[in-house]
Amino acid sequence: MKVHYCDALVIGGGLAGLRASVAAQKKGLNTIVLSLVPVKRSHSAAAQGGMQASLGNSKMSEGDNEDLHFADTVKGSDWGCDQKVARMFVHTAPKAIRELAAWGVPWTRVQEGARTAIINAKQTTITEDQDRHGLIMSRDFGGTKKWRTCYTADATGHTMLFSVANEALKHDVDVRDRKEAISLIHENNRCYGAIVRDLITGELEAYVSKGTCIATGGYGRLYKSTTNAVICEGIGAALALETGVATLGNMEAVQFHPTPIVPSGILLTEGCRGDGGLLRDVDGHRFMPDYEPEKKELASRDVVSRRMMEHIRNGKGVPSPYGDHLWLDISILGREHIEKNLRDVQEISQVFNGIDPAVEGEKGWMPVRPMQHYSMGGIRINPTGESQNMAGLFSCGESACWDLHGFNRLGGNSVSETVVAGMIIGNYFADFCANNDVEISTATISKKLEEQQTYLEGLVKGQGTENVFKIKERMQEIMDDKVGIFRDGKNLADAVEELKELLERSKKLKIASTKMHNNPELEEAYRVPKMLKLALCVAKGARERTESRGAHYREDFLKRDDENWLKRTLTSWKSDEDLEPTITYEDIDIKTMEMPPAFRGYGAKGMTIEHEDASVRQAEVDNLTKEMQAAGKDRHEIQEALMDFDLPMNYKQKNERVGD
Amino acid sequence: MSQANREITISILKYDPQDKTVEPRFVDYKLEETPGMTLFIALNSIRSNQDADLSYDFVCRAGICGSCGMVVNGKPVLACRTLTSTYPEGVITLLPMPAFELIKDLSVNTGKWMDEMSKRVESWIVTNEETDISKVEAKVEPKVAEEVFELDRCIECGLCLASCATKLMRPNFVGAVGLNRVARFQMDPHDQRTDEDFYELIGDDDGVFGCMSLLGCEDHCPKNLPLQNKIAYMRRKMVSVK
């Protein structure tokens, strides 16, 4: 039996996991990162458009601060987020971006003087002040009050990932790739690491640690049409679920991005619209202003995606062999801008579709349709990152439901969350590892290891009749067709039943090769049942939630129902024999909110069933704010009085801005 | 209405170094080509329908992550952004990239090599300056940030090494990827290393002086990095040290 001991075990080597590993290593802990793939290949690299942080350097972001970023995030979440977490996040984001600058991310910088930009389809001149020259620049993204998204052209995730990965190497973090955690080691509601399969040799090893942090990203590949990389199968969240102890939060909260290219599903960044790109229909008509007169193409993603599908349903889609689509037109930005700031977009469009988006007119339009993009749900954790039910199990990034995004994440808040959560949760995680011991017997560890060995051997020797590739494909179709952008009770109920059948069938597999090492079908065979469990959490959570909130849109319950549904869905998998998750709920308390529920400012009006506490709390907030302002208190003091929050290290320090 | 799709043949070198009972061999797979088919789509179809034991590496399938380098009809390319329609004969031969340890079939260990390279050239910012992240960031000339970004676009896919003759002769050659990383930090105002420091890292025949300037790297770089220029630039810099 191979057992590796360490202080801090991080599962997942994307931006969140790597940043957390640096935090642990810097505190003198022996830290190991396990990754399915070489860490620089992680899906973080695919984040194109940028990272939100309220630096307020450039003209169009002047006056930006934490308060505005906070308000945008809460509205974007449709009041589903944890507002304390949102405060922790917006306060640390400027620090994260400045740290990354020091680590070498070549952020696009402010150039003094006049330049032309396209705003609302019109050429506009913006003049940058001399004293801002050389500071970090930002662009516009959906659902934000200021231009807040900092970027390196449209390869932001790539440059961030390389900087953080190399920083981890610099600090001698032990990074091991092609290693897959397949089960968590736990006892008495306490996690002690994982059973891990080497993806080259097939050997099982136990990684035993004082604390374990899961940072394995989202579960987009439960869907057929998704922008996500092929490794985004949600396995980390499934490991937590399979403990029977840890809970997952809001799994039904799934984001659909407005502009993946058809048919490959590769993302074209929100920066396309942020920089002034337009959506057009079969007649070449720019239709978004008809639906969203104020924010137009730059309403939040859930709203734009729904409006696009609505427009296609109204017969305005462009027919194609791959189904109806709409057009994304960035040619109006001009070739120079595209070749400098949207280069990857141009390359993707040219390589995969043979379209040069810099060509003016119809020839340069790119076919797009909303597809699955982001998982707001994940391992339910406290603000410090630790599971609510299992001690020593932490999570950060997309695999977690921290809950920064509620029912809809704003563009630019995801890569931002990865590094910010890596800093905040990484430090709390490191403190836990420094202050706790491993208290599990080696006999228990070897039992866990043998269980998994027996399970895998059973899979290759299985004499069933089912084909794992077929089961996976059917699951993905069900999720697309019945648990997609538009949802209703009947389809969701059908989805749950059919997914349960698939889960049953996945226990009777037949695998062609009996090899225990490097056997792709064996890998599918142990992953797909985990994915089906997650799919059931999504579908059942969606079936039960009889309201519409953010990205969760029920055609049979069109209103956001604060009276009954201002709560988080918690799913757990009590027994291996179960065919569906157990659901409980966690209330979201209006009385402690800094910003009580109201209208988002985009989407249809009058679609909320209000909670009686909302107006009471709003009056409290207004009164306290007025009193404190009269007493000469500043915005920081008022904020603290309304809703105090904690941060580790010195992250609570005020963020300096040039405009101060 | 639609035209009948043609049948294509994909011929793949299969070999599992951990299974001594089977020799390396070519296996032909025939499949129907669909419009816009990439090698990502074709290989997944083969694995799902014909050979569940076929190994290869894809992650982003969008030309961004650099996982899927392989040799297609003699040329190293990123498989995910290679359309089957680019081969009019309809016969496509796939080999794993040379220069890296073979894992199985088309899967090679680029990660291990790139990690070692990153440590060898100290592919990170080296500075004694402490940054106070609560304070306004240091200014960087926008043009300089752009130039650094241009080189930072490398995705470490390994195609430059798979097309490199020097790498064949000198197994420890750091490759265009390594030299590009050094050029990137040499230009970065945050990095305090001097040319003398960089000389310690790449001032030998396994570094910048080993390059024979055949420039297969530049020809095959999927990100069109200015490798020829930057290698020449670093060589001039390194020659002038001492």
Number of strands of chain B: 7
Assign the structural class of chain B, choosing from mainly alpha, mainly beta, alpha/beta, alpha+beta, or little secondary structure.
alpha+beta
Largest sheet of chain A: 7 strands, mixed
CATH architecture of the largest domain in chain B: Orthogonal Bundle
Distance between the first and last residues' Cα of chain A:
60 Å
Percent range for helical residues of chain B?
25-40%
> What name does CATH use for the topology of the largest domain in chain B?
Fumarate Reductase Iron-sulfur Protein, Chain B, domain 2
Largest interface: A-B, 78 and 67 residues
Radius of gyration of chain B: 21 Å
Q: What profile does the largest beta sheet of chain B have?
A: 5 strands, mixed
List the strand order in the largest sheet of chain B. Answer: 2-1-5-3-4
Q: SSE string of chain B, helix = H, strand = E? A: EEHEEEEEHHHHHHHH
Helix content of chain A: 25-40%
Q: Please give the alpha-carbon distance between the first and last residues of chain B.
A: 72 Å
Overall geometric form of chain A: globular
Write down the CATH class of the largest domain in chain B: Mainly Alpha
Give a description of the structure.
The complex is a heterodimer of chains A (660) and B (242). Chain A has 18 helices and 23 strands. By secondary structure, chain A is α/β, with parallel strands linked by helices. In chain A, strand 9 (190-198) and strand 10 (204-214) form a beta hairpin. In chain A, helix 2 (66-76) crosses helix 3, helix 9 packs across helix 10 and helix 14 runs antiparallel to helix 15. Chain A is globular and about 70 Å long. The termini of chain A are far apart. The model of chain A has no long low-confidence stretch (mean pLDDT 96). Chain B is α+β, with helices and mostly antiparallel strands. Chain B has two domains: 3-107, Beta-grasp domain (Ubiquitin-like (UB roll), Roll); 109-128 and 138-239, Alpha-helical ferredoxin (Fumarate Reductase Iron-sulfur Protein, Chain B, domain 2, Orthogonal Bundle). In chain B, the strands form two sheets. Chain B has a five-stranded mixed sheet. In chain B, strand 3 (69-72) and strand 4 (75-78) form a beta hairpin. Chain B starts with 6 loop residues before the first strand and ends with a helix. The mean pLDDT of chain B is 96. Chains A and B meet through helix 3, helix 4 and helix 10 of A and helix 1, helix 2 and helix 3 of B.
